[in-house]
What does this fold into?
Amino acid sequence: MKRFIFAAGQLLIMGALIAGASTLLAQPYPNRPIQLIIANVPGSLMDINSRALSEELGKILGTQIIPINKPGAGTVLGTEAVARSKKDGYTLGYISNSAMVYARILNPETIHYDPEKDLEPLGLHVLFPQSIAVQTNSPWKTFNELVGYAKKNPGKLRVSTMGMGSIAHFALEVIQSLTGAQFTHVPFKGGESVITALLGGHVEVTCDTITKFVSHVESGKLRVLLMSYKMPGYPHVPTMMELGYKQDLPTPWFALYAPSGLPEEVKKVLMPAVEKAIKNPELKAKIEKMQFVVHYESPIELKSRTAEEYEEALAIAQKIGLGKMN
It folds into this structure.
């Protein structure tokens, strides 16, 4: 009898556990915390933006979003982790175009995911425009003046960037291709050395993100001549297309992704929530104070942007013999 009661008790416990698990699985998405893989180090621009967005997204979804930093290989390692994660909507990724576009061209052997097949775009979040800057005491007041001088003096003007194959390097190649001017590229390994070289007179021009220039512009040390994307705070600074050229410079961006193959019921909840979070006016104002441009693009638009950017960058790389896909 005792044995029967024990067995019956065990069956009841098992039944309760199964029923509980079934109830949990039947609950609508999301019914537990979501992890957000950030493909860069804590405190980076990517980290700051992703945490601001994840906080707002968590409020909309009604669940906790747990940030997990996974840096390495120029944001490739974190991106790969997202691509290889479970396709249930509980692992998302905050990813850059460095991993989606440029790493595929420069170091294809490090890419163990297919950006088009393995990652599901959820929405573009922010752009941080590339800028061309000179010292304020330089003779060039406009981009056209700079280009005119470079044409008359091929290779005399040195331009610092964050390195060979950086987005800034691609931007410089676009400038040379569209204008016919010739500059001397001076690549650095990143950080503030790009701007330090300009301020110290070691180069005459620099190409980097506007976020790095702001304090130096405000202090009167630097003058911005060109931007890859229009910003409200710099209405007088033109883009290439505003100057009559056929295309603008490439612009770095951050976006939200998930592993491909999300269930439709997850997409129906997640994608509108991402759009709502990105478009939140208070969050938008907070981010744009840091000199970013909040620019939502739908998953379809983001996919198209990525494909077009890849084709443009690949053409440049093949032209100048950069990367390993020539």
Observations:
- Confidence is low (pLDDT under 50) at residues 4-9, 16-25.
- The longest helix spans residues 2-26.
- The chain has eleven helices and eleven strands.
